[in-house]
Amino acid sequence: MASATSSTAEPETGGTGIHLPDTARDLVKILVTGPFGVGKTTLIRSVSEIRPLHTEEQLTEASAPVDDLAGVRDKSTTTVAIDFGRISLPDGIVLYLFGTPGQERFRPLWDDIAYGALGALVLVDVRRIDASFDVLELVEETGLPYAVAFNTFPDAPRHHTAEQLRAALDLEPTTPMVTCDAREADSSIDALLALVQHLIDHHPPEPR
What digits encode the pLDDT tens for the residues 62-77? Predict the structure, then answer.
């Protein structure tokens, strides 16, 4: 069994420590998902105000037949359970971020991880758009509202229009679609805010 290891990196958002801020009002579970090697762990690490939990293990020859390294040849680890982080947003909203493994063999974990989530941020690598189809199908099967964020890898092509990308993924016109750099906290937070706004617009909270 793989062991869960905590990142030793300090929070990059000026973290508030392990305790919830006094202003916390709405606690929201969000999935951060996408195909293998798309940057889920990186995004959660970049925004978490607490030391994030990672369950990463080294890739081995045994995983070669099932982990497609096309486009991510430099990747040496993979998430085998979840990533977890937390970030406090304005207006008392606190997001609990659960990163899900992107490989098909971890699909049995999906129902447990997705339980209680209000939405999902789906990361997409424009170099490997077809790798996102299975994850998008899974998110849609669960009925979770979601937003799509294209992680801007340095060698990713820049010539696609927004209309072409939306058509390639067969997204509904109302599905938010943004770009982000998962390594940058501000950029990643903007992607999460796009999802949160989508949830508010289409699933407004009940009156208190």
Answer: 444 454 545 445 544 5
